[in-house]
Structures are given as structure tokens and as C-alpha cells.
Design a protein that fits this description.
Layout (H helix, E strand, L loop, with lengths): L7 H7 L2 H13 L6 E5 L5 H8 L3 E6 L2 H10 L4 E4 L11 E7 L8 H11 E12 L5 H13 L16 H11 L1 E10 L2 E3 L4 H9 L9 H19 E2 L2 E4 L2 E9 L1
Helix pairs in contact: 2-3, 5-7, 6-9
């Protein structure tokens, strides 16, 4: 995610499910009043606000300036900072670190985990959910197939996501010092809003896959992906994304 491609209006209007599903994760975090908690990849701030409502001293970070600006506009009373998780500036600063639907964008997972470990106080907890092995596999496979059909170069290199297995990610957590106390991999078919749900998803989250592709060809590819997946992912008059998620809890020893 080297470029700040985020469309914050589209994100808030059509992809509010990202925060909605994250509310479960807040329960897993079990925040206590007065705790200092870092929200890694806070987006436009909705889950940081949920933590704030519980009396948490929350700080939200994101590497997207657009997201941070939107978060500050929505919740000016919360501390939001432009920071990259692989270059965090904190040390022994937080009781907990919370991250929802972000770490699958981080292709340097061990560096990110090291920084988050350092940012936690002793016995602090790291609670995260993100895309795991097989996440959006049907969508990604079809998108790759269509891009290659139009002779787009270096398609695999443009994939912006990292979808690890539990074993892979838990091992990295242990290598940086965490004690892994919880790890789960589960299916979560996720409804997308409206008739254009899949199209909006592609425009929101798969931007890097279309870098260097002519706009007209891009639209043809999107239509082809939509047509090919309709029989599989369009059910009960709505689109579903084939999400597979990982949830983990680690404790700093």
C-alpha cells in the first residue's frame, strides 16, 4: 500500500461492515476503563470511537493520510497519528494493541510484530483480526485470470495482501516474544452492499491490481469478474465476499 489510494467516502458509505464486524473483536479485547490502547490501522476511526466510549485512552494510527484526516474530522477529541506499523515510534507505552482488518495489508509481518511488541507494556496484550489463508480466494483467482486474459504483466507481483495460516502467523508472534494464548481461523462469508457490491469491493480494495491498466480495459475486467462469480457469490439478491479470517491474542512476556 505504498500509494494512498483510499476513497474514504466509499469506505464509510459502502464498506462499513469492516468496522461492524470489528465490534466482536472489541469484546475479545475486553478493554478496561483508563487503559492505554493503540488501534493499529484505525481507518476512519469508528472502532477507536467504540474504545473511547468505554473510557479507554485510545490512540489511532494509520499509514493513510486520507484515513487519518477523515478520522480527525469525525472524532476530533481522539488522538489520531499518521504512522506505519513497521516503523512505530512507541516503546512500553500501551496496555493493549488492537487491530482489525489491517494486518493482511502488511507484507513485512515480522517487522510489524516486533514494533507492536516493543510498543506494549509488560503483560500487555495484542488482539487482532485480519484475512487468513484462503481469504477472498475465489475473487482473487478470478481477478488474476481476467487480468492475464488481457495480457496484464506481473499480475502476481501486484497482489497487495498477505494471508497467512495460523501456524505461520503464530510462529512469527512467538519469534518476536509473544506468548500466543488464542488463535482461530474461520470462514466468514461477508455480505457486500447493493447490486454493485462486488464492483465496489474491487474498486475499494483491489486498486493496486489495476495499476498501469487502461481505464476501459479495467472496466471490462471488472465486468468479467462480476459475471464469472455471479453464480457463486451472488445469493439472495446480494453479493458475498468469501472471507476467511484469523484472530489472535498474544501476551508480551
Amino acid at each position: 500500500m505504498s500509494r494512498d489510494h483510499w476513497n474514504t467516502e466509499l469506505y464509510d458509505e459502502k464498506h462499513s461492515f469492516v468496522s461492524k464486524y470489528g465490534e466482536d473483536l472489541v469484546e475479545l479485547l475486553a478493554p478496561k476503563q483508563g487503559e492505554a490502547i493503540l488501534d493499529v490501522g484505525c481507518g476512519t476511526g469508528d472502532l477507536a470511537y467504540k474504545l473511547y466510549e468505554r473510557g479507554v485512552n485510545v490512540t489511532g494510527i494509520d499509514q493513510s493520510e486520507k484515513m487519518i484526516n477523515q478520522a480527525k474530522k469525525k472524532y476530533p477529541f481522539i488522538a489520531f497519528e499518521l504512522q506505519n506499523v513497521v516503523h512505530l515510534s512507541y516503546e512500553n507505552a500501551f496496555d493493549a494493541i488492537f487491530s482489525n482488518a489491517v494486518l493482511h495489508w502488511v507484507k513485512q509481518p515480522k517487522e510489524a510484530l516486533s514494533c507492536m511488541y516493543l510498543a506494549l507494556k509488560r503483560n500487555g496484550r495484542f488482539v487482532a483480526e485480519f484475512g487468513g489463508k484462503g481469504n477472498v480466494q475465489l475473487i482473487v483467482d478470478e481477478l488474476i485470470k481476467q487480468l492475464k486474459a488481457f495480457e496484464v504483466d506481473n499480475v502476481e507481483e501486484k497482489i497487495p495482501w498477505y494471508f497467512p495460516s495460523i501456524g505461520e502467523y503464530a510462529t512469527l508472534m512467538e519469534e518476536v516474544g509473544f506468548r500466543v494464548v488464542f488463535a482461530q481461523h474461520f470462514d466468514r462469508p461477508t455480505p457486500l452492499e447493493g447490486e454493485r457490491g462486488l464492483v465496489n469491493w474491487l474498486h475499494m480494495f483491489a486498486v493496486s491490481m489495476f495499476e498501469g491498466v487502461d481505464e476501459k480495459i479495467k472496466e471490462e475486467i471488472v465486468v468479467n469478474v462480476e459475471n464469472s462469480l455471479r453464480n457463486i457469490l451472488f445469493q439472495e439478491n446480494r453479493w458475498f465476499a468469501d472471507y476467511k479470517r484469523i484472530r489472535v491474542i498474544g501476551i508480551k512476556q
